[in-house]
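tl;dr need the bound structure. longer version: we got a ligand (2-(butylsulfanyl)adenosine) that a collaborator sent over and nobodys looked at where it sits. i said id run it. heres the input, straight from their email, havent touched it
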Amino acid sequence: MMDLFSDIDQMERDEILALRRELDEANRLYYVENAPTMSDRDFDAKMRRLQDLEKAHPEMASAQSPTQHVGSDLADAAGSKGEHFVQLAHRYPMLSLGNTYSKEEIQDWVSKLPADVEIVCELKYDGLSISLWYEHGRLTHALTRGDGVRGDDVLRNIQTISAIPQQLDASLSQIPFLELRGEVLLPWRNFERLNQEREANEEPLFANPRNAASGTLKLLDSDEVRRRGLITYLYYMLGEQLPGTTHYERLTLARDWGFPVSDAIRVCHSLDEVMDFIAFWDVQRKTLPVATDGIVLKVNRLSQQQQLGYTAKTPRWAIAYKFPAEKQLTTLRKITYQVGRTGVVTPVANLDPVQLSGTMVQRATLHNEDFIRQLSIQEGDRVWVEKGGEIIPKITGKESSSLTCSSNAASCSEASSKPFHFITTCPECGTPLVRVDGEAAWRCPNTSTCPPQLKGRIEHFVSRKAMNIDGLGQETIDLLFEQGLLHDIADIYSLRKEDIARQEGFGDKSAEKILAGIEASKQIPWARVLFALGIRMVGETTAKKIARRFTSIETLQWATLEQLTAIDDVGEQIAQNIIDYFLDEHNLSLVLRLRQAGLQFQESPSSPSATASQTLSGKTIVISGTFLHHSRDEYKDLIEIHGGRNSSSVSAKTSFILAGDNMGPEKRKKAESLGVPLVSEDEFLQML
Ligand code: IVH
């Protein structure tokens, strides 16, 4: 008996360690990579389980446990490359919120508060938190949450949000330090526009507006940040000797002082009022321009907040109620298959239409064969559809078979479901599919004549970051493709005005515009032409690096695996894809036709790399801090085109550090200990 108990103990201890690892990794993917793999609901459930287990095993307590610290969005903390922003310590730690999906727990929380308590209810915005510092009325820093103790200063990106005041009224300049916290968000509309562009440019899509906002705020290019259109709602004001004795008063003041504060705030005096607020917004939130994932309840009186205090990770005076993910049961009528630009075949669930989060859902992705097998779903099954943080609705499971059969025979899955077999040939061109070792996807290998692959490659070629041919959108490409006027990217350059003008919805004017775009594309520089060719895994940045090393297509065509992998960011797989591309006769003939059309297949003599020196040859340079004359990206380019190598971390191999203002203290310390010299911005420019 004793043995059995200690076995259980051991199992629970193992589970604690496994959960810690899993939650740490989920935090990293969520906060650093902006590419979550676990749903919020699963994350919260696992966190709960870990908390319970740690309570049962106090001997396993650890300050490093994810139950004891907030997830970190600091790139360096996760070992990822590059320190893009200066990090600063928060004046007040930036905590997380306790949360629950259960109304009973909300009731429980409220019941433990003092009898005369007032509770402020607010929307829980689903973006990323920001801390704005105002020193004597001027906005001086804007920190991300980071690890809760230190954050990245993303001031220049925050300054693109016009609703955030840069300078407060003169009467407020006597306040030495004022901090406003809130949420940075990308409205649904901007998020959808951004993802459409990313799709056209073959960049990975953001799963939800939160990830998009977070990825945007960490960009180095503030113009791009401005273009994407972030917004913010502020929900917490703190500092010393500020006016107001309640949270609500402070928010009202903040609004009067010109800060963007939401109107969806209510001071509640009873649990009923709180529940009303929750019920109202659970429905109304679907009409809001931004994503919300719950309601935040905060004790209104600051003196009571102080009495309640904090745990290591969360305030005791606030809690979040999270809305349940909306899900619906419906029938999976048919599994169909979609072929993407790269030939990947994705199974799609065609459903009996159901209403979900305000939209009618009829199709959902089934990802790949393994996913379908794991859920063991078949055509005819009753399945659960959810719209969580992700854009595309997903199937999360099937109704258990005992519940499936109702008196209505049509909805009985046992009777009507058909065993599942993934297709073996391409639904578009009939070619037998292949499955690459280690990949979950089946792929159509017919790159040269499979229609969606051909059309997809043309769409990529004309997209904004590639050849940027205005007017040639997806629909026009479809049209010209169906008419047999466009089979491949080189055909674009043989299009005649009358070919376009005679299409429905087109006239002379629009045809002329498209032709002008095509003509202009002949001046697009070599690096972008290389990206436009659509070689597998050669994205925009990689194409730039390759084009810098191989300044013409002739040299690239004969490049060896070793030469290619010597380029930063080019691994063996990419190198092999490039080699394979030039071994394919069809591609060679395409390139020849494009060359005859007059495209740029070599670095133009006026471009910087052709005229650059080898001044920095053999030098490894680390960039740190902020600069006056050029952006960090420009300095990276300058280093490379003068023959040097840019590296993100200081080591004994570092030749020197290009040190700007506010250089990171860690880097400075490391440089000192290794004796790596610092070179100022002016000294560096003189060097060149
Ligand atoms: S109050 C100490 N209010 O939710 C007070 N947070 O899961 C802490 N959030 O990190 C925050 N809407 O990013 C507060 N109205 C709101 C909020 C809100 C969204 C976010 C915030 C926080 C996270 C906790």
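gonna send this back to them w/ a short note. The first strand starts at residue 87 and ends at 89.
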